[in-house]
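Cross-posting from the modeling subforum.

Setting up a comparison between two proteins and wanted a second pair of eyes on the formatting. Protein 1 (sequence, then structure tokens):
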Amino acid sequence: MDAEFTLTNLLLVSLLAFAVPFVLAFFPRVRVASAVLELVAGIVFGPELLDWIEIDAPVEIMSSIGVAFLLFLAGMELDLRVLRGPALRRGAAAFMISLLLAIGILLVFKEFGLVETPLLIAIALSATSVGIVVPVLRDSGLLHSPAGLFTIAGSSMAEFGTIVLLGLFFARDGSSPRVEAVLLVVFGVLAVLLLRGLVWFSGREATQAIFRRLDDTSSQVRVRLAIVVLLAAAVVASAFGFEAILGTFLAGAIFAVVIRGWHDLETFRKKIDAVGFGFFVPVFFVVSGMRLDLQALLGWLEIGTVLVLLLVLLVVRALPVLLYRRYLTDREALASGLLQATNLSFVVVAVTVGEGIGAITYSGGTALIAAGLLSAVIFPPLAHALLRKEGG
């Protein structure tokens, strides 16, 4: 074995990922997503502060798999059977308004020399962290209420739209948007063919019998199939010049359709969540924290930039919930706006992509992630308080 190869840094990152839930458990009244503390842990123990952990090859690889799993699991949460009717239509319209607002505001910022890549930042600020939104709605007992339905619809449409736009406009091969659009259509056709093939394969009685026989053995064949689909989609997306995240998200959405008829579906979901959220996804967030450039936040101008980005995030995601007022109370609409303005996971992903292709500087990425971090700390507790009063 190469003398330079070591798993020490990966061990330390794993220890941080293990410790975060315990820290949260000691403070049950503090409603903070684990991703927030994972980022903070990466900042504290990474190169910027204590410098106890380095990003070496094993850590880098596991982090890359982590972002792939994060988007795959996000795609699996997209359920169009639930998102239909007024909720789906108004959620999609709310996302379009958010995107147009963000683009308009960021173009003005560019004119004053405040940003260099307005489209990337606008796309990043138009998303919502569905993984943070759902627990707040569930804890408030309003997950299946009109408030929950409209919030999830708007959040899901934003997540889907921003991932597609990020993959379309910020491909690694630098092709023009027109070429990327053609490639995206071809990629979509392949995705449909993959869906039909997987539905046929997994729906066969012989296949189902094998699944049932091997499910509770060390083979874990359904989990293996999910990982094969995830990696295959990432490889194909990269081959077409897109970011792998576009492939993994669509793979998750496709796989969610494939598994609808599977037996003991809840057990399978727990298994695949355990693989992703048990290890790979936390590693991605810890490593993302280790990459942050804290020097970029030390001046008053830099702090002001973070606060302005946070305000823009709130405006572009909360303002469109006016479309929901016909169906929600004022308190529910306000809470929905706060939840839809909660945006951490996708901001981190967008910054990772942007830095990888040179579309955003490390200082700009740090400011964007800091704004997302604040949104995840501030907005969900406020929304929970509003919804709790509404439910009471």
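Protein 2 (same layout):
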Amino acid sequence: MKLYEYQAKRLFERHGIPVPQGLVTAQAEEVRAFVQHLGTPVVIKAQVHVSGRGRQGGILSASTPHEAFLQAQVLLGTIIAGQRVRQVLVEQFIESEQRIFLALRYDRTKRQPLLAAAIEERRKVISSTRPERILTATIHPLRGLLTYQVHEIASHMELPYDLWQPFVNTVMQLYHFYEACDAEYVELDPLVTTAQHTIVALNGRAIIDDSALPRQTEIAALLLAEPLTAAAQIARDSHLLYVPLQGQVGAIVNGSGAGLALMDMLSHFSKGDVCLTSFIDLQSRETLDNFIQAFHILNAEPTLEAIIVTLFSGRIETGELAYLLTQALSQGQPSVPLILRIEGVGAAEAQAVLRRIRYAHVARTLSEAVWMAHTLLKGRSHVNFD
């Protein structure tokens, strides 16, 4: 579960990580009033799950309360990478001297958490030409992150010595947040040093393990308080798992693993040219109404160019799934190419039923479904799948 920047910062602050003073709102007039109280200059930031939103016009600055009001009006309601801006975060502008990238994630190769750090102005060059220059520390799952590991990173970054202690405190608190909140990934980008010899997290990201939400009551409350998009509201009401992404292909699956596999295979096969715009996991609730609602959600996606339905069943006859799909599609034909794939008990009979849907393309395997999507979207007559 991805947190918006303001949600992540709210939790960071409660864990002792310094963040700028700010306000999240959906009203431009509230921005003006807050800036009159806070003072200028300020930055106004669109709250969307989009990497690099600043390069897409998602972060604006203002030097007066009225200008902040106008900039908020510009952002609210606009669409950035397929996502509508419903809220903005307005914060005091902080002049930085040094910008640091920090991230914590689980390294599946080493089977341990990993801390990564780099000086921001060098990070993009380093990551592409000298990946070994990104500083890392492997964290023992029992001992946790140790102070000397953070000292080594501070030393290699040539951080001024009077900033070592606040830097160590911030990194240790970030690790405590990562552990306590069941995070899959956390990032401070950038964490800045100032002329006043302080450290502040100007931006932050956090992804929380969905399966941990029942025990993460504070985070669950944040998510429940968040105004939902129409698609997310339909999915919640139907007990469907809706995962919005950034791409061209919508997917309906009955298992999140299938959705993730499809996402990886599609991106890998197309070398990143074709990606999922979203996927909907039926979560073993393969009913006629849920199929109808899933198609309704996908058809409303602004960047949708194709739909893949991939289902597997070991519980019920796949012929029944094929019948439900046929009934759902009789309610309305998608306006984009449709690829259908069913595996499980009686798959041959189910595929025969699906082939009666004249506008649909029936795939026997997930790989074939991926190949079909790429071929249809790229308009190529032949693809060497090897």
